[in-house]
Automatic annotation (TrEMBL):
This is RTA1 like protein. It is found in: Membrane. GO terms for cellular component: membrane. The chain crosses the membrane at residues 20-38, 45-63, 75-98, 119-136, 156-179, 200-217, 237-256. InterPro entries: RTA1 (IPR007568). Keywords: Membrane, Transmembrane, Transmembrane helix. It comes from Thyridium curvatum. It is a multi-pass membrane protein. It holds the Pfam family RTA1.
């Protein structure tokens, strides 16, 4: 049985990582990410690439936990699991933002959205990138910590990035709900009954709530500090992060947005309204 080690006198881990659990979750994410990779090339929805990359981040993260089992004093395994598991949901979120704009455009519902589709992706993905770099910077500082002060500083930065992402998600969910209600109220939904736009929106709601719950867990985890219960015990990361992210990937696959276009690579005419006029352009979905 391995024993806990320190890195330059600082304890990276407060427990011995469970190798069987890490192996199981690695296999799970290899399978679901492999399936998403297949869907990506089968359906050719290239905006889903960040989601697939996020799946590979999960795989790398749990591989890091496997390696850390008997190397708790080494920095690389800790870095792999810490950074990649922390940042994977940011990539999932980027695809969810882009999916909403595709739903709106697929049913010509720009007039029902509080944010024009042409700006929706840019606004939310930009916010996602900012969150990515904030959390990445905090994780980098945390993994290089040589004192409790350095550790706390990294944790505070990560918490700030997570809270920022939660706020973005809140606005995103509100935008989706307002569009959903307006579109139904104006009876446009009858024209597009052959397109499963509502089921794709439900998928966005479910996956967004799963990521939101995971982010709240991470905020509490890092807010409690390195010696807190959540960071000093292993089971929460599998229950409130790994499991939630698996269901996020599974539900996204179940309601894959290619359903909006009959499951094929298509060319769609997209109406981009600007003021009182609209311009139509050819767009490869």
């Amino acid at each position: 049985m391995p024993t806990l080690e320190t890195h330059n006198g600082y304890p990276l881990w407060l427990y011995i990582p469970n190798r069987p659990a890490a192996v199981i979750f690695t296999i799970i994410f290899v399978i679901i990410t492999g399936y998403h990779t297949y869907l990506l090339f089968r359906r050719r929805l290239w905006f889903v690439i960040p989601f697939v990359v996020g799946g590979y981040f999960e795989v790398i993260g749990y591989l890091g936990r496997i390696l850390a089992y008997d190397k708790t004093g080494e920095l690389i395994p800790y870095l792999l699991q810490s950074i990649f598991l922390l940042l994977a949901p940011v990539l999932f979120a980027a695809t969810l933002y882009m999916t909403l704009s595709r739903v709106i455009l697929a049913v010509d519902g720009a007039s029902c959205s509080i944010i024009r589709p042409r700006w929706l992706t840019a606004i939310f993905v930009t916010g996602d990138v900012v969150s990515f770099f904030i959390q990445g910077g905090g994780a980098g500082l945390l993994t290089q910590a040589k004192s409790q002060d350095d550790s706390k500083r990294g944790e505070y930065i990560i918490v700030g990035g997570l809270i920022f992402q939660i706020l973005i998600f809140g606005v995103f969910c509100a935008t989706a709900l307002v569009f959903n209600m307006r579109f139904r109220r104006h009876h446009h939904s009858e024209t597009y009954r052959h397109k499963p736009w509502q089921s794709v929106l439900v998928m966005l709601y479910v996956t967004s709530l799963l990521i939101m719950a995971r982010n709240v867990f991470r905020v509490v985890e890092y807010a409690m500090g390195h010696q807190g219960y959540l960071l000093s015990n292993e089971w929460p990361v599998y229950v409130f992060d790994g499991t939630l992210m698996f269901f996020t990937m599974a539900f996204f696959a179940l309601r894959y947005p290619s359903q909006l276009y009959g499951g094929k690579r298509v060319e769609a005419n997209i109406e981009l309204a600007s003021g009182s006029s609209a311009s139509t352009q050819r767009h490869i979905v």
